[in-house]
Amino acid sequence: SEVLRVEGISKKYANGDEIIEALKNVSLTLHKGEILAIMGSSGSGKSTLLHILGALDVPDEGKIYLNNIYEKNYCKEPYSTQIRSKYIGFVFQQFNLINDLTVIENISLPLILDGVEDSLIHKMVTEKLEMVDLIGKEHNRPCELSGGQQQRVAIARAIITNPKILLADEPTGNLDYNTAKDIMSLFIKMNNELKQSTIIVTHDPMVASYADRVLFFHDGILKNEYQTNNTDTDI
Ligand code: ADP
Ligand code: ADP
């Protein structure tokens, strides 16, 4: 079954006199439990697509369905803020951690801002620290951790509210090969244990090999789709 579907998404940007068609009539479905990789050269529209799927940006045309229900206001404030906080977690290439806060404070932040009570925060954070294997690093600051550990803090923060959809933009772009593999194993584990669905934008075929499906973009068009051998998806 499906968790997120877009139909006929188009997005143009004005760049002076020039109109750039970042996405042209893109349709795709993210199935429950699936890891979807998105590949394509620089400028092919991957980030634009991820921002629209994450309700961070508005398409010019097209429809978005969440859990098979058409969401007319998916990308419109204030509804989009609710969509993001309830359904979506974001992971970035640059980790985007707050260096003045400890690991546990970084991970707790979304819950503190939501006004969740302290005892519940402690329970939820401990669960996620175990999931990303960072027990013992609670009181370190990001600058005291390796790149892979920092990305695992960012992942714990992204999943702290138990989002059903995880969106990752080049999550291994700053990591070495073996660390990237560890992070991909973690994405697989989270998909299985937390019943998530994940979309990963990547340039790296090794990263894409962990996905269930790979979509290739070129000049704003979804060009090719490739099914991998990782077949445990509930389609
Ligand atoms: P990718 O993530 O595949 O590198 P992007 O989605 O970032 O591609 O960009 C797609 C196209 O849209 C590119 O030509 C890019 O220059 C253009 N673009 C992206 N964001 C903007 C913007 N805010 N203003 C103008 N052009 C943009
Ligand atoms: P990159 O993958 O190139 O390092 P990011 O994916 O971190 O870049 O962010 C690309 C752009 O998306 C940012 O410049 C920002 O405008 C926007 N963005 C990213 N995350 C958020 C967010 N949580 N809320 C609002 N805008 C965001």
Automatic annotation (TrEMBL):
GO terms for cellular component: membrane protein complex. The keyword Protein transport does not apply. One of its GO terms (molecular function) is ATP hydrolysis activity. Residues 4-235 form the ABC transporter domain. InterPro entries: AAA+_ATPase, ABC_transporter-like_ATP-bd, ABC_transporter-like_CS, MacB-like_ATP-bd, P-loop_NTPase. It comes from the Bacteria. Keywords: ATP-binding, Nucleotide-binding, Transport. SMART domains: AAA. PANTHER family: ALPHA-D-RIBOSE 1-METHYLPHOSPHONATE 5-TRIPHOSPHATE SYNTHASE SUBUNIT PHNL, LIPOPROTEIN-RELEASING SYSTEM ATP-BINDING PROTEIN LOLD. Belongs to the ABC transporter superfamily. This is ABC transporter ATP-binding protein. It comes from Anaerocolumna chitinilytica. The lineage of its organism: Bacteria, Bacillati, Bacillota, Clostridia, Lachnospirales.
